[in-house]
Amino acid sequence: MINLIFSRLLLGIFAIPLVSCATVVENAQPSSIPIVYSPKYKINVFGMEKLHPFDIAKYDKIYKGLKKDGLVTEQNTVKPNQLTEEQLLLVHTPEYLKSLKKTKNVASYLEAPQLKIIPNRMIDSMIVSRARLASGGTLAAARLALTNSDKMAINLGGGFHHAKPDVGEGFCIIADVPIAIKVLQKEGKITRALIIDTDIHQGNGTIVCLKDDPTTYTFSMHEGGIYPVPKEVGDRDVEVAAGVTDEVYLKTLEAEIDDLFKKSKPNIVFHVAGCDALEGDPLANGKMSHEGIAKRDALVLAACKRHGVPYVMTLSGGYSKDAWNAQYKSIKSLLEAEAK
Ligand SMILES: [Zn+2]
After folding, report:
1. Is position 22 within any domain?
2. Of 94, 107, 227, 286, which one has the greatest count of Cβ atoms within 10 A?
3. CA triplet 63, 147, 29: central angle to 5 degrees?
4. Which segment of 35-49, 74-88, 227-241 scores lowest on mean pLDDT?
5. How are beta strands 152-155 and 77-78 bridged, if at all?
């Protein structure tokens, strides 16, 4: 994975945000769907973050794009709180949380050796606290989805599905979705949860965090033969072949989706909506188009509506230059459809 990171180094350096802070589209109807977001989701490590394949600016680009379209305003933007130590401990071990105080551990979990220049005293403010904030965003979005009339909310971050209770990996250090589930269960807000993971990498961390938990159901649809190897065994795992097209992907997902609701009887759905099945992603081999990603997300949301279950989107992975754009277009289309 580290070799892959450096192979993407030059692309990362020259990545330029394509959305500017241009004028908001006039007469557009702001969406009533809550968008959870903070500019602090973005990590800034003296520009070194651009050497990593994860486009940490994608949250900003998507938010600014939706704002420009008039779909998101200050009114429907919800600023999250960082997860507390007590909340983190519902899933992570105390030893693991202690390990996040050392730069070398965090750099290893994030597969970003260039971060080792950060002094230990600054690792929390520069990196860890931002992951805690984006993870708090997933919890905030879940609370909103459970209480608002639209029964949906979007966190423009999160979906850190490779983080395990005692170790971080695959660019993920906080298991935001499992923690949100445990917090809501503890508060008596939900009993059962379904995770629909359509990032092209298996949500191995989520599976380990929720292993042997009969109140949760993990569904992951991912490419075989790529990270993570070996795969974990979730409640329902569907492997797609390298080179999967829109048609095959959507047909496969459609054949699975209603059964997931029947088996899990969820009070809430967390959609881990990574965009790395897109053609050209450097860390996978999918051949999906922007339209295919939008149809995928609409299919998951439609299933939630059909079954009357609140829907929470988290963004997760996506490493091609235009992954953010596919995600932005998909969210835009969901918000516009909801406004009608
Ligand atoms: Zn991924």
Report:
1. no
2. 286
3. 40
4. 35-49
5. unpaired
Please state the domain count of the chain: 1
Rounded to the nearest angstrom, the distance between the alpha carbon of 22 and the centre of ligand 1 is 31
Domain of residue 49, CATH code: 3.40.800.20
pLDDT tens-digit map of 249-280 = 999 999 999 999 999 999 999 999 999 999 99
Q: Is the peptide bond before 282 cis (omega within 30 degrees of 0)?
A: no
Residue 66, in any domain of the structure: yes
The alpha carbon of 1 and the centre of ligand 1 are apart by a number of angstroms equal to 12
pTM of the model: 0.90
Active site residues: 162
pLDDT tens digits, 168-202: 999 999 999 999 999 999 999 999 999 999 999 99
Spacing, Cα 316 to ligand 1 middle (Å): 7
